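Thread: sanity check for a docking pose with adenosine-5'-triphosphate

Original post by kr_44:
Hi all, I'm comparing my docking run against an independent structure prediction. Below are the sequence and the ligand SMILES. Could someone generate the full complex and paste the structure tokens? I mainly care about where the ligand ends up relative to the chain.
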Amino acid sequence: MAARTARRLTRTPAPGGTGADAGPERTGLVARTRGLTKRFGTRTVLDGVDLDIRRGEFVALLGRSGSGKSTLLRVLAGLDGDATGALHVGGTVAVAFQEPRLVPWKRVLDNVTLGLRDPDPAEAAGRALAEVGLTGRRDAWPLTLSGGEAQRVSLARALVRNPDLLLLDEPFSALDALTRITVHRLVLDLWDRHRPGVLLVTHDVDEALLLADRVLVLDGGRIAHQSEVGLPRPRRRDHPGLVALHSALLARLGVTTEGTS
Ligand SMILES: Nc1ncnc2c1ncn2[C@@H]1O[C@H](COP(=O)(O)OP(=O)(O)OP(=O)(O)O)[C@@H](O)[C@H]1O
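Reply from moderator J.T.:
Ran it for you. Here is the predicted complex with adenosine-5'-triphosphate included:
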């Protein structure tokens, strides 16, 4: 498991321990942070975040706008090294963002193989595109894709790296409602087949509850709350257990639903 932090790095115990002292690999963790802190100038955005994500676990991260969700994801992705505390990430990490970030002058297949170290990148990319249902669009230019197709290419690009940790930064928020349902199903299906640890940043409490095993709320620079969603998938929004969790999470986010319907 690689340790990434810039200053004042502390490391979790080396692999090989037991019980509470066990190293991350021994406990199936793909990411662990302890006391992760990130400042922008004098402003502390992350203030001692302790987070564990296990292989095969789907975690959603909620929080008010500006609470630091994307910042945390960027630090985990290694895109922002200027944080302090301890960070251990095991294996390969892949990220998909709200906007698909495809290279417009490269065809779909070449976008998926971009930077890929694989003996046969085209073959691996072809398989990933088949998994997201886009075999027929492999030679298309990004600008000719619909929003949903572009986001599926972005997922294929993440998937082809066979990630141990998949970081999703609001990848569904720009999609229309129907496409979003389709892409939700696709992501659950891909997750079920490949079993990476997933961290999904979202504003959408419903989305978090439909997809995740565990829903976290980031507030005041820390994980202020977490709910386990112990319900089988596919889940229905109107399941009484989800309705109760939904209200509890909205309350944690400072939203009252009284007087609305
Ligand atoms: N590069 C930067 N320089 C200065 N401040 C930044 C930078 N990036 C983020 N911030 C600040 O850090 C805070 C957290 O930003 P972040 O994007 O992580 O929040 P978020 O919870 O993802 O927000 P949203 O839900 O609105 O996307 C915000 O106040 C933001 O203005």
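The first helix runs from residue 69 to 77. Hope that helps with the comparison, let us know if your pose agrees.
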